[in-house]
Amino acid sequence: MNYIFFTSLLYLLMIIIIYFSKKRIKNKDTVLYSIILIVNFLGLCLDLFQYYIIKNDFNSSIVYSVSKLFLVYIIIWTFFFGTYILNLSKFKKGAAI
Question: What pTM was estimated for this model as a whole?
Fold first, then answer.
């Protein structure tokens, strides 16, 4: 199961490098997508750390704290992803349906 985390991390790093190495139009969509990429990267690192501390039987208070941080990450990611979807689904003035 551990190899899935590392392959996900590698794939996400490739997407981040490709996305941030190119010029983009500065609008709400691209800013939100950039935030989602960064939050997703941090969440994946947090998930890897959580896997490591659970696998190695660390103190239960550390596991509890990291689990709470992971739940906060899920809430933050859901907020930004929902905002991104709502922003994409808005009708623009003068746009054809």
Answer: 0.82
